[in-house]
Design brief:
The chain is mainly alpha-helical and 502 residues long. It has 21 helices and two strands. The chain has a domain of 233 residues. The longest helix has 32 residues. The chain is globular.
Length: 502
Amino acid sequence: MSIGINPLTWVTFSPVIGILIILFLRKEQHRAIRWTALLASLVTLALSIWVLIQFEPAQAATQLGEDQAWFSMLGLNIHYALGVDGLALMMILLTSSLVPIALLSTWTAVKTQVKAFMAVFLLLEIGMNGVFLAQDLILFYLFWEFTLIPMIFLIGIWGGEKRRYAAVKFFIFTMAGSLMMLLAILYIGGKVGSFALADVMAARALFQDAQVWLFLAFALAFAIKVPMFPLHTWLPDAHVEAPTAGSVILAGVLLKMGAYGLIRFNLGLFPEASVQFAPWMAGLAVVGILYGAAVAFAQKDMKKLVAYSSVSHLGFVVLGIFSFTEQGLSGAVLQMVNHGISTGALFLVVGMLYERMHTRKMSDFGGVWKAMPLFGTLSLISILSSMGLPGLNGFVGEFTILLGTFGSTVLNTPWFAILAALGVILAAVYLLKLFEKVYLGPLSAENLKALTPITTREVVILVPLILLMFWIGLAPQFFLNLISPSMNQVTMLLQQAAVAVH
């Protein structure tokens, strides 16, 4: 591109152009507003693919970087620094892929304050991409906090009956953890004299004595966002009350910000403390896997079932992270992407059914397959993907994580992997229960009337996600080649730390 702006800056801030156009449109111009937002998100997707094309997979270091002195505050240097490695690349590709799909799902679902909704959604995309690309601790924190504001509006304005309660709960949980992380960031900056991630990484010895407390401060913020058991209680309320598009982005991207932070900052900045806390974090991850699956089985509301399944599935991601093996870490990153695709598809399916029946109770359904065979087929593939069926994306991620956990010398016991494997079985139980109650069985005359055939727009929404499920499931090496060099670098750092600790 001839314009002298860094490609990562383009990826991060290109939605601003769409927001400015939307602001100049009249609020009654719903069609123009929707198309402007969609096209702006597609431009960001194209820019993310452009970054992918320029990316060198064999390099572990961050690439395409931009680093400019932003301003100095009390002698501390804050940089506008962006960079991308395999981990960040996978996250921006996931984000920029899910946003246009989520926006397309709002065509008939969001009917009030459309102008504000689209502008807020594009603001959220800016914040999410900024989180994944920031290479300065203060810049990262600003983007991290910025994502909180649009998400609160999405839940609080366009959510369900208890939307204000869910929005406030989400805010309190997230803000509490973020404040502890901010204190840790300020402490590190004070010791190092800079917030640039490269400077902080090079000067880890300066805050070595406080590593345990710093690890806990960062881990609290990230564990809330994942969310890990027992800090997960905000998630079901937020999912149930959020509009469908909000749920897709919340599950697909925002939760991944927590797992991303654990890899980028906890493992990268505090490797010795990470080794010490690994069994505890892995233990909480396994509890989350089993607890989330058990509670999901008990749900009668489809959206709550999918929400609790996220607690279970993200437990696998955290387990892979704290296995400290290249297989486990690569599997965790791949599973972050897999969960965004599969669970995003499930929330979209639930939203499509809700638009027709205005209920999410499984007992109100039955026979959807007979009324909507194509929709039923796409739904079944999404459910099987979330279950981890071989040939689909979920299997590759979970299998790689379990393999890495079995071989972990830091965890040094197979029981973490054995207990986690039970979560795979439990996932099949609650997801097949969902399919049986909603899609099979008798079809009432009332349901037959309400369950209109799937529309072309809905096919366009679901099919790209289905194709990604098969692509990752059948040919995962393309994605693993992008991820592995960065995760290998993290693994080597952790292995050195493990030797130092033991």
